[in-house]
Write a structure and sequence with these properties.
47% of the residues lie in helices and 11% in strands. By secondary structure, the chain is of the alpha/beta class. The chain is globular, with a radius of gyration of 35 Å. Pathway: Amino-acid biosynthesis; L-methionine biosynthesis via de novo pathway; One-carbon metabolism; tetrahydrofolate interconversion.
Length: 839
């Protein structure tokens, strides 16, 4: 049965809701959470429990929600996709529902690089929209894989977050609509200071009919200080703080008092906006301000919540234990295990009127723990005594007898043997043993004695249906000759079919599209163009890699990739082959066989990629310089770069180890070698952008701007590099991609948003090409390296398809330059891109 939460009941009844937020502590002190809950109780209808906000380790949101529930306050469980895959998420949601939690806010989550474990591996198996779909499916009684939930299904009032101010601004209402279709029924917004812009956002929602479908709760945060307001204005992307707010705080004598009044004033304004159904007050680590804000805004008192508790009560156990004398409990022990006693004790519920003083409870808990310990000792003592009796019986009586009550566990072990082997087939068991020694001498010259264990199980089923007692000895010699040719071939069918050719059929299939392709203009000739065409008003800048005839240009795109009916892809998509500075130790054999003869020399490796596999660019990864790996010096990197430069004349990309400090030392020296070739260097991150930007400007070469998979962080790094004097046409964005099955959906979502902002919102800071390191991400997944077997199929085909599918997906998301490993994957991608590029 679905049970509505208090928050859902309130909103569906058309009442104005108030929610707040609790950030769990960075320690195991439950009292911190309880204290905050007691502070907010009576002033809010529900309270959000953040899920390791800003990727910092805290008490889990689920445990914190249960503690809040125990204080009689309704929690809104926040769940992010950063740390869990879909199995873990579903397990936690089933647990949350079992514990009485009914509200769920679905979030993608901050990247670990924001937090106190920046090297933690992000999961991002799903994003917020997919999480909503998953939770909606659980509500409807099915798991994410489509399997039916048998028994009690969970139920959640589903919510999501929305930022009304993020670019592209016009796209935000449609994104909210997408979340609503996925299952979201309430939305809590980003902090609102610019009420006029928020009003425009709500008008767009109303035009789309969304204000009738979902409940929007406006985000309110009291600025605690002038410094906090300025920080939010200048350093928090996607948040707008008008100058008026800054001026009010500057002129105020009491900044905190003014901050509370600002929050109250904003609440009064947003309450009047059609479609706003409540407010979400985020007083960050300032929960004591919430009651005052609620009172001043005229939102107090709140509607009372029915008394709520977690679905377990410790006091019940204590009450029952006190009622029962110890002697009775000991009698129970002899009959049944301890677990049964506890169940019996919990059966009787305690009336709610019964209240116990704190001292009595603690004393009773001590008594309870002593009793439990005594019971365990009694049980283990009786088992030891019983074992002693059994040994005496074996010694003096020669065999075990059936024991009284307590010795019930071994009984089945004794009973299983007689019925199966002695009672049902007493005659057959003995002839088998005699027949085998007779046959052995006859078949010894022919074959191995190994067949004995294999034939036994086969001979029995064949003989059973025909003649049970008589045929045994006659049939055995006949059966022994048959299995040998049949059993052996069954062991090695795995390696026979090599689906390598499966990659090539795809070429023929895709190539065949060229003859039948009809342009969209022909297919849509009867439809007005303005119904399906949406021309971009921005363009992706061109970045040149290399010099001379073989130089490449990437970018120069004026529409979504492959939407050639709307825009132009001047330079198409480019693919670079990946090589390493050291011999790879973890590449599977089905990948290594293409390069193992040149592993010893990066120059020869690069040459083979160009001459045999047609590489149009080479990406050299300086893996060996990583301080967490071989920590090879900059001198090693220079020598490797010299070999590659002297071996090939195609454009080069030099990718450091990813250690910000070591990359400064290495790439500065390598730039001396590759600078004259116009090579790209990177990755450049916020920690080393000043030095590497200066190096790039000195040699007039492009850089790879690498940021965690986040729209605002990518934009911020581009701004920092531009502020250093590096032109945007010298920047390639590395969005930190995920491979197929490892965060690819989330990667696609973020890259798509960046590209939409660049093309349709004229966000000039994002109008630079994407570079995607695909090979590195795909081939470190376990599926790409698993051997051939019946379940997973041919190993090489699997790896090739994983890399090619990742490449095509990211190309559709806006990728301009892909770095790949397997020559077959590159070949397949090129065929697919040629098919998609038909105009």
């Amino acid at each position: 049965m679905e049970r509505k939460s208090h928050l859902e009941s309130l909103l569906s009844a058309g009442k104005f809701a108030v929610t707040a937020e609790i950030g769990p502590p960075r320690n195991a002190d439950s009292e911190v959470i309880k204290k905050k809950a007691r502070l907010l109780k009576g002033f809010v209808d529900a309270v959000n429990i953040t899920d390791c906000q800003t990727a910092v380790v805290r008490v889990s949101s689920l445990a914190s929600a249960v503690l809040v529930l125990s204080e009689g306050l309704e929690p809104v469980l926040q769940m992010t996709c950063r740390d869990r895959n879909r199995i873990g998420i579903q397990a936690d949601l089933l647990g949350a529902s079992a514990l009485g939690i009914r509200n769920l806010l679905c979030l993608t989550g901050d990247h670990p690089k924001f937090g106190n474990h920046p090297h933690a591996k992000p999961v991002f198996d799903l994003d917020s929209i997919q999480l909503l779909r998953l939770a909606k499916g659980l509500n409807e009684g099915r798991f994410e894989n489509g399997e039916e939930i048998k028994g009690l299904r969970p139920y959640f009032f589903l919510g999501a977050a929305e930022n009304p101010f993020a670019e592209p601004f016009d796209f935000r209402p449609f994104r909210l609509a997408k979340k609503a279709r996925a299952g979201a029924r309430f939305f809590q917004t980003q902090i609102i200071y610019n009420v006029d812009k928020f009003r425009k956002f709500m008008e767009k929602l109303k035009d789309l009919g969304l204000t009738e479908e979902v409940y929007v709760l406006a985000g309110i945060t009291p600025p605690k200080s002038l410094g906090m307001a300025k920080y939010m204005k200048y350093n928090v992307p996607g948040l707008e703080v008008p100058d008026e707010i800054i001026q009010r705080l500057e002129s105020a004598k009491d900044k905190k008092e003014e901050g509370i009044q600002i929050a109250v004033d904003i609440i009064q304004q947003v309450k009047e906006i059609p479609g706003v159904r409540g407010v979400h007050i985020m007083a960050i680590e300032w929960e004591e301000a919430v009651p005052e804000i609620v009172k001043r805004a005229g939102l107090s008192p709140r509607e009372s919540i029915a008394e709520m508790h977690p679905p377990f009560v410790v006091e019940k156990v204590v009450e029952k234990i006190v009622e029962k004398p110890v002697e009775v409990v000991v009698e129970k022990i002899v009959e049944k295990p301890v677990e049964v006693i506890v169940e019996k004790i919990v059966e009787k519920e305690i009336p709610l009127e019964v209240e116990m003083a704190g001292e009595k409870i603690s004393a009773l808990i001590e008594i309870l723990s002593d009793l439990k310990a005594s019971l365990k000792n009694l049980r283990s003592g009786m088992e030891s005594l019983e074992e002693g009796i059994v040994k005496l019986e074996e010694e003096f009586l020669g065999k075990k007898e059936a024991r009284p009550i307590v010795r019930e566990i071994p009984k089945p072990a004794v009973e299983v043997k007689p019925p199966v082997k002695v009672e049902e087939r007493p005659v057959e068991a003995k002839p088998e043993l005699k027949a085998e020694p007779e046959v052995k001498p006859e078949l010894k010259p022919e074959e191995k004695p190994e067949v004995k264990p294999e034939i036994k199980p086969e001979a029995k089923p064949e003989v059973k249906p025909e003649v049970k007692p008589e045929v045994k000895s006659e049939v055995k010699p006949e059966v022994k000759a048959e299995p040998k040719p049949e059993i052996k071939p069954e062991v090695k069918p795995e390696v026979e079919p090599e689906p390598k050719p499966e990659v090539k059929p795809a070429e023929v299939k895709i190539g065949g599209l060229k003859g039948v392709y009809r342009p969209l203009s022909a297919r849509a000739s009867k439809i007005a163009q303005d119904l399906y065409l949406e021309k971009a008003n921005g363009e992706i800048r061109e970045v040149q890699i290399g010099k001379g005839e073989k130089a490449l240009k990437v970018g120069g795109i004026s529409g979504i990739n492959f939407h050639l009916f709307e825009g132009e892809m001047k330079n198409g998509l480019k693919i670079a082959f990946e090589i390493l500075d050291v011999k790879p130790e973890d590449w599977p054999e089905h990948l290594s066989k293409y390069y193992s003869d040149v592993y010893h020399d990066p120059g020869l490796w690069a040459k083979k990629c160009v001459e045999e596999y047609g590489a149009e660019a080479i990406c050299l990864y300086l893996l060996g310089t990583d301080p967490n790996f071989l920590n090879l010096p900059a001198e090693h990197a220079k020598k490797v770069a010299e070999k590659v430069v002297s071996s090939v004349d195609v454009p080069l990309i030099v990718w450091g180890s990813g250690n910000a400090e070591k990359d400064v030392e290495v790439l500065r020296d390598v730039a001396d070698i590759v600078g004259v070739r116009g090579a790209v260097i990177g990755p450049v991150v916020e920690a080393n952008h000043r030095t590497l930007a200066a190096v790039a400007m000195g040699y007039s070469i492009p850089v790879i701007a690498s940021s965690p998979i986040d729209v605002n962080l990518a934009k911020q790094l581009n701004i920092l590099l531009e502020n250093m004097g590096l032109a945007l046409d010298k920047i390639l964005m590395d969005p930190s991609i995920g491979a197929l099955g490892y965060g690819l959906e989330y990667t696609y979502s973020v890259m798509e948003r960046i590209r939409l902002a660049a093309l349709f919102a004229q966000d000039t800071k994002l109008q630079v090409p994407f570079i995607c390191s695909i090979g590195k991400e795909v081939w470190k997944t376990k599926e790409a390296g698993l051997p051939t077997d019946a379940l997973m199929g041919d190993a090489e085909s699997r790896g090739v398809l994983m890399e090619a599918l990742t490449g095509v997906t990211l190309a559709l998301a806006g990728g301009d330059l892909l770095i790949m490993r397997h020559p077959k994957s590159v070949e397949l991608c090129k065929i697919l891109f040629n098919g998609l590029s038909l105009s």
